[in-house]
Amino acid sequence: MRAVTPAEHLAFIRTQPSASFLQVPAWGPVKSEWQHESLGWFRPGADGEEMVGAALVLYRQLPKVKRYLAYLPEGPVIDWASFTDPDARLGDWLDPLSAYLKKKGAFGIRIGPPVVTRRWSAAQIKEGVSDPAVRRLDDIAPLERTPTGAAIVSQLHELGWQPQAAEGGFAAGQPQYNFHVPLTVDGRAKTEDEVLKSMNQLWRRNIKKAAKAGVEVTRGTRDDLAAFHELYVHTAERDHFTPRPLSYFQKMWDSLTPEEDDRFVLHLARHEGDLVAATISIRVGQHAWYSYGASSTEKRDVRGSNAVQWEMIRSALAAGATVYDMRGITDTLDADDPHVGLIQFKVGTGGEAVEYVGEWDLPINRPIYAAFQLYMKRR
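Structure for Aminoacyltransferase, as requested:
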């Protein structure tokens, strides 16, 4: 294992079917409050050494001391599916990583394997929300338990890594529960009609309503980020969350757009000249994400949010993506929980809820790591 250049890192990412956008080299400069470094795993090949894994490592320094939390969000990028083989050892990958990061001054390491452990269908979720005896996804037997997820969890425990549990699936890092819209069936790409048919009647009606009302979705420029941000702040005030500053989205644009043409795309939905919804999508290989969204309170009846979501799904299909990722949800199915509205909106697409392995920590310097954990709890 050794440090690699951003160009080497990106070249490896381009050989993979997909990888998290949080693991592309361009993500490092976006997180300006962290230091960042690209790392690679190598093994002997026919023409010399061969790069077989990559990681974007973010370093968060502790106040006043040169000790760091080394964070690999939704990473590293290695062949996680290979660990269903009983002879494959995760330690062969993570041991050199921890040795390298220890030399760099890391007191602890946090990883987020992009590995799904369980899946629930849209029908199961809909039934769960209507059943008063069901309060969380855990109350429903999953549609699938993945062997890869089970193997990774088992080996991480054996290697001394600690799961970072979070109430409802949300943590200080990345969400453990996400919502996916599969874009393939029986090994082939779905058609737009097939994706539409998998949606519920309300979603299909709203998409048609937006088209009939004359809502137009266009691709925005960097200058349009200001209009997006104004609508995003409005959305934050209405929905009671803390918005990111405009400068954050400008950093995302400046860093991510040079990597690929549709790495970062701003979508704008307008009705009679008024901006009624705006979103940001990101794509790496066969994985497309709905990353940020905003909508106006006025003109909600023209269904700009549904129109812009449908355009992002269509763009993902055209790009050859196999999954449209609507990002985080909580695990609640309690009809009285205010968070249930989020999963109800997403479940209308006909997709599936997925649980990931989650984030795991390896304490290297246990006293400093314990102090860090205490500090984070007090924050």
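The two ends are 35 Å apart (CA to CA).
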